[in-house]
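Suppose a colleague, Dr. K., hands you the sequence of a protein chain of 206 amino acids and asks what its three-dimensional shape might be. Before reaching for any lab equipment, you can write down a predicted structure in token form. Begin with the sequence itself:
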Amino acid sequence: MLIGRRRYLISDIKITHDKIKQASFAIEYIYLAYISILIIRQINPNSTDFGFYFPFVVSIVLALLYSVVMYFYSGKSTKPSWIEIIVRLVYLLLAGYLMSDIRNLSVQIIIVLPTIVVALRYSRKYTVIMALATSIVIVLSVVRYSFMEYDNLFIFVSFVWLIGLLVNVFMETERRVQRELQKILEKEKLAAIGEMAAGIAHEVRN
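The predicted structure, expressed as tokens, is then:
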């Protein structure tokens, strides 16, 4: 019964971890897809030697670069690597520049996605850092390109912080539950080892 319970807890931890990982990677690729579409819209094909295919080549190269970095350097530990942080900031700046040409709020909202991914994968400290970086990029873009009224800017930045912190609060609770399950597993493992040692000692005495 103890072994069966342990297997159930291990399976539950693994399933939860896999679901979080799948959700965060799905958000990553939605973010990438939107950036690629905005790049294709932004670049004028007639102004390059590559003609019509140039924006598609740029989008594919950027998507591959982002995917490779995130695959090898993201979500491997409890905190993001410096490479991941730098790449996220570069793509965040790119998204801030691209969103200046779009007047549709439903498209501009994609800039909040990196904050959601960080909130899913890491602690509150990194969520705050990502939300702050996103807010700075949005404010700088609005000041420079004037594509949004300041009251809408306040609402937009507030939304970034609200959604990031809400997701992180949920994930912190989930991570706390996972840690408690891990502690239970460790205790049960020690109890099993103790029972085995007691059994061996009993056999030796007899």
